[in-house]
Amino acid sequence: MSDNESTSRKRIFSGMQPSGEAHLGNYLGALRRWVKMQDEHDCIWCIVDQHAITAGGDPAELPGHVLDLAISYLAVGLDPEKAIIFVQSDVPEHTELAWLFNAVTPIGDLERMTQFKDKSQRFDSIPAGILNYPILQAADILLYKAEGVPVGEDQKQHLEMTRDVARKFNATYGETFPITDPMIEKGVGRIMGLDGEAKMSKSLGNTVPVLADEDEVWARVRTAVTDPQRVRKSDPGRPEVCNVYSLHGFFTDEETRADIATQCRAGEIGCVDCKRILSDNIVEAFAPFRERAAEYHAKPELVREILDDGARRAREIATETITEVRQRMGLDWRSSIG
Ligand code: TRP
Predict the structure, then answer these.
(1) N or C: which end of the chain has fewer CB within 10 A?
(2) Whose CA is nearest to atom 14 of ligand 1?
(3) Ligand 1 cavity residues, CB under 6 Å
(4) How does pLDDT run across 298-329, given as a tens digit for each residue?
(5) How far is the CA of 95 from the centre of ligand 1 (A)?
(6) In the chain, which residues have pLDDT < 70?
(7) How far apart are CA 144 and CA 139, in angstroms?
(8) By three-state DSSP, how is residue 69 classified?
(9) Distance between CA atoms of 96 and 88, rounded to whole angstroms?
(10) Which of 12, 70, 1, 117 is closest to 311 using CA atoms?
(11) What is the CA radius of gyration of the chain?
(12) Whose CA is nearest to atom 7 of ligand 1?
């Protein structure tokens, strides 16, 4: 997070791929910060469905995933009164700008992306969309001339790419875009999944859905991996290496945490009891989200209205930028007639 973040109002953009309801990792790593930023900045929150198609999911499921992510956004407190909330494919200027950015993006830069290297290994024939993914991301951000993008450490390289695209465009066609600040939150780091091995991610099934009910939360938290050296309750545990203990840091008050740590080290509290406390605290913290989500599930047309309005507001900004970009690139042939 940059130093002057709270002092100067900035245009902020961020987005998530729709893979259904948001989970604990999305919330702790991103959404709870987005909620706070809405009061300090002009924020634009996107659901990037056009990025999602590069992952090759089932088209029949995508619309439902978009709705579920939209409901998650609204349920945790992203607020259409304070921010613009919309779906990427509702604003066709994203893909137009992405195409135009092809003119200033070296293939070598795209091939160097770690995410490209990882993802491309899953294919015999690599879709160009996986390679060009960061160009669309740069277009998402620069279409709104966003000055800041709150992202996790894993997106740092893509943000570097966005900055390169902006610099190159500005140098070639004239000063147009800001050099966006990747607002990576200090001191949070990766939120590890319940398996204690990998980053929390829906595809790995090592997380808790934000809108899960009490039984579901417990069913997930119960499976969480703790200190592997601790087999019996009487074995002394090491809270400092225990992922469940680190999750307590987000949900449990300091005094209780200190008690848990002492009792764990003394072999006085078992992992199941420790997880029970965590599970109950997660359920309690997320209760207002579940309530709000239930209202939206009952009235999905409300969600549609919010996203329609968001797309309309996003498009106002997008049209302005794309008009400027077309002119700069000479894609305004009518100007030759005068
Ligand atoms: N690549 C991001 C992710 O996987 C999603 C994303 C797409 C994004 N466009 C963006 C994030 C623009 C921030 C800004 O998490």
Answers:
(1) C
(2) 14
(3) 13-15, 17, 48, 51, 137, 140-141, 149, 151, 155, 158
(4) 999 999 999 999 999 999 999 999 999 999 99
(5) 14
(6) 1-7
(7) 9
(8) helix
(9) 12
(10) 70
(11) 22
(12) 137
